[in-house]
From TrEMBL:
<keyword id="KW-0378">Hydrolase</keyword>
<comment type="pathway">
    <text>Cofactor biosynthesis; nicotinate biosynthesis; nicotinate from nicotinamide: step 1/1.</text>
</comment>
<dbReference type="GO" id="GO:0008936">
    <property type="term" value="F:nicotinamidase activity"/>
</dbReference>
<dbReference type="InterPro" id="IPR052347">
    <property type="entry name" value="Isochorismatase_Nicotinamidase"/>
</dbReference>
<keyword id="KW-0479">Metal-binding</keyword>
<dbReference type="InterPro" id="IPR036380">
    <property type="entry name" value="Isochorismatase-like_sf"/>
</dbReference>
<dbReference type="InterPro" id="IPR000868">
    <property type="entry name" value="Isochorismatase-like_dom"/>
</dbReference>
<keyword id="KW-0808">Transferase</keyword>
<dbReference type="Pfam" id="PF00857">
    <property type="entry name" value="Isochorismatase"/>
</dbReference>
<comment type="similarity">
    <text>Belongs to the isochorismatase family.</text>
</comment>
<feature type="domain" description="Isochorismatase-like">
    <location>
        <begin position="7"/>
        <end position="197"/>
    </location>
</feature>
<dbReference type="GO" id="GO:0016740">
    <property type="term" value="F:transferase activity"/>
</dbReference>
<protein>
    <recommendedName>
        <fullName>nicotinamidase</fullName>
        <ecNumber>3.5.1.19</ecNumber>
    </recommendedName>
</protein>
<keyword id="KW-0662">Pyridine nucleotide biosynthesis</keyword>
């Protein structure tokens, strides 16, 4: 069993990111079994849930004529336009049915502000709007994080980079992650995480 200072953060293990979902990550459901094992090993356990309003600004459908996976500019910077996914209350936004959600101490929802996407579990894509997770972890005395989930190169990587910047010791369990890999985004994310001192395991 890990000590009370170590938390597991399981990122976005939701139906829409698994095969058959609206933004399916190849073999996304493969993360469920290893994450369930990790949930048993950690004293502090957090799940994140991508949680968008139906007209979210990160959806291609919200921008007439825009194709899914094209790029746009938001006031806060470049933004991929995604297929409509993880709409609040939808079946696609629900956790994968095999995930042991009862083990979680906290579920943090992100991406609910219509004008800002939120990949990271800590800050929205404007890099300044906090989700509250840092305060939660600090108030529980957590210093060390293990991250796993979907997708390696978006929500997991952004969370790991923010966590490292906030001063946590961070490990990403690649054996319990799967990636989207949009135009080299997976290799770039792995490089960025290594450069930030994130330990890549598995
Ligand atoms: C994610 C794209 C859009 C993720 C969420 O969980 O990695 N990717 N929303
Ligand atoms: Zn999303």
């Amino acid at each position: 069993m890990q000590p009370d200072t170590h938390a597991l953060i399981a990122i976005d293990v939701q139906n829409d990111f698994c095969p058959g979902g609206a933004l399916a990550v190849a073999n996304g459901e493969d993360v469920v079994a290893p994450i369930n094992t990790l949930l048993d090993d950690f004293a502090v356990r957090v799940l994140t849930q991508d949680w968008h309003p139906a007209d979210h600004s990160s959806f291609a459908a919200t921008h007439p004529g825009a194709a899914p996976y094209s790029m746009t500019r938001m006031p806060y910077g470049p933004q991929v336009l995604w297929p409509t996914h993880c709409v609040q209350g939808s079946a696609g936004a629900a956790f994968h049915p095999g995930l042991h959600t009862d083990r979680a101490d906290l579920v943090i929802r992100k991406g609910f502000r219509p004008a800002i996407d939120s990949y990271s579990a800590f800050f929205e894509n404007d890099k300044v709007t906090p989700t509250g997770l840092d305060g939660y972890l600090r108030s529980r005395g957590v210093t060390t994080l293990t991250l796993a989930g979907l997708a390696t190169d978006f929500c997991v990587a952004y969370s790991a980079l923010d966590a490292a910047r906030l001063g946590y010791a961070v490990t990403v369990r690649l054996d319990a992650c799967r990636g989207i890999d949009l135009e080299g985004s997976l290799a770039a994310a792995l490089d960025q995480m290594r450069a930030a001192g994130v330990l890549l395991h598995g």
